[in-house]
Amino acid sequence: MSERTSSALGRPAAIACGALFLAGALLLLWGAMLYAPTEKVMGDVQRIFYFHVPSAANAMLGFVLAGVAGLAYLATRRSGWDEIGRAAVETGTLWATIVLVTGPIWARSAWGTWWTWEPRLTTSLITWLIFLGAMLVRKVSHNAEQSARLASVIAIVGVLNLPVVYLSVHWWRGNHPMIFKRGAEGALAPEMWTAFVAGMIGVTLMHVALLYAAWRTAQLEDAVSARERLAEHEENGR
Amino acid sequence: MSAGAAHGAGGVARAASALFAADLRRELRTGEALVPMLMFAMIVLVVAGVTFNLPEMGPDDRRRLAPGILWTAIAFAMLVGQARALLVDRDEERWQGLLLSPLDRTALFAVKWLEGLLLGLAVELLLVPLTVVFFDLPPGLHWGQLALALLLGTGGLAALGTLLGSLTTSLGRGEAMLSILVLPVASPILIAGSMTTAKLLAGGTLADASPWPAVLLATLGLNLALGALLFESVLVE
Amino acid sequence: MSTTMMFWGYAAGFALIALFVGRLVAKNASLARRIDALQR
Hints:
The complex is a heterotrimer. By secondary structure, chain B is mostly helical. Helices cover 82% and strands 0% of the residues of chain B.
């Protein structure tokens, strides 16, 4: 049993998390708003790219981590893995939600439509639904063990199906517009690449800070429920 | 697990076929899974027919709609049937007996998967001719290839339905929860199934539909493997 | 137009993050209350 008390993070860790998050956010905003040149055709709205695509990558990162934690939990049945999995599904869902909100705003301005069945947007929507399912399973579970076990199964099934989802949506819709297309007009200018790398690092730093905070909260949650069960047990024993 | 090992492979095969025979007899007597599945599949077809206003459509538009509606009907019928079949097991506390039987969990998964697949194929036996008639599709299809595509897609859906159906059953939830969990993961099966069927219903072959038949095969293999490996984790109670 | 939409994109994204952080803080506060209750 862990003996952690009073706060999930503790003051120094909370400050470190905040600083890491702030550094990431500033790096992202610097690259996207100050460093990157304005795109000629789409205008300023193209700057959403430096936030949107790194968010999609970090959503994947969260979900893959959740899948790995799910496998490790089923193999070891140690609640530590479940705490990681729980935090990763939450942050992964956050980034996927950001993809789903920024995507249509960009699409509306650049292509005149809120929703394009564009492959990255479509896969994000499907992935988002899969992991909302994992969170729903936790909500309706009868106890912590069942919740961890069943959510692990969903995470593993979801993550291992992701490559197939990704491939089939890409083949279904044809290839992704602009950005990474080889050849003249779609290529990124060197400054844009730098801003994109800054966005990637920035969003990932923000993700690490949030993931750490969510993970420690999950740990504290388990420790508190364990103590409460113990206290209840003692009371009944008397 | 260990009990199964003691009985050896012959024991497992006997126990599996006994379970399968008992379930089959029960289904033939009551029709408790198949009847709602057939009704539901037909209702999806009729709802699509009236909401998409088929009579107003030309033959080309109808042909474009048919594969998607066919797979929607298949997917929802499978969800209804598998949720029903697994809930019946749970309600009658047959699980206790199943878990104590000399079947290991993988064999139990295989039996339940096969039952789901057969239920799906039985529904399609009615559903596909009905779709051809309702949507006025051209005759002269490659029926054998269509059957193969349906077999692959339905097998994949059955694998997901068996694994996740046992999961939702252990939560005490039914079709709605099962749909929420299965359909997003099943999206490659639904895409590949309707893309393949679109070509086949237009008189083409599986080769014309490439790479979609391969996607159906891959999703079938992947979800069978996942089901066999993870079934144990959704059963423990 | 393009600039306004860019602004809304970033505003919506950071609002979602703020919501996430807010939920996390609230959860921590409620956990702290549960610990207090246990120690009493």
